[in-house]
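Listing S7. Sequence submitted for prediction.
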Amino acid sequence: MDSTNLGIRRRDRLRGIGPARLHGFTLIEMLITVVVLAILIALAVPNMQDALRKRRVIAAAEAIYGQMQFARSEAIKRSQDTSAVITTASPWSVAVAGNATVTAGNFAGVTIAATPATTVTFDGIRGLRSAPAVGAGDETITLTLGAYQLAVQVGVVGRVKLCTPAGATAVGRYPAC
């Protein structure tokens, strides 16, 4: 290359013409990017809050499910009746002797209702549910947060399951009760 071409290239670079100018963004490009990101974030926030509500209901139901399973296994292991006590007043709780208590404080906004009773007792021989009485049907503990509901059911034979109450908005892949 001759020295004349080198001089032109250097002079063009100093003026901002050519490849040297392509390293960076203009202010307008940055502003457009920020506006597009702000719009995407504004659209995503409501969906994120909805997902958090669902997770809270699921986490609370799974914690109570664990308490009921623990009570049943302790009854069989110790060969003595074991009860899970459900307190529906605010703040709600589910307690089993020998295990940590599940409380409303860990699941903000989730409410609880228990039917037909607030104490579930498992017998120490086979782990069957001995209270409430067999004629009462399944013991159902329903957890609610906004439009979302999930239930923990304890059957007469002591089987504990998670399900979605009839007419409730489905939360996760739990079957209908």
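Caption to Listing S7: primary sequence and predicted structure tokens for the chain studied. The two ends are 83 Å apart (CA to CA). The CA atoms of residues 163 and 174 lie 5 Å apart.
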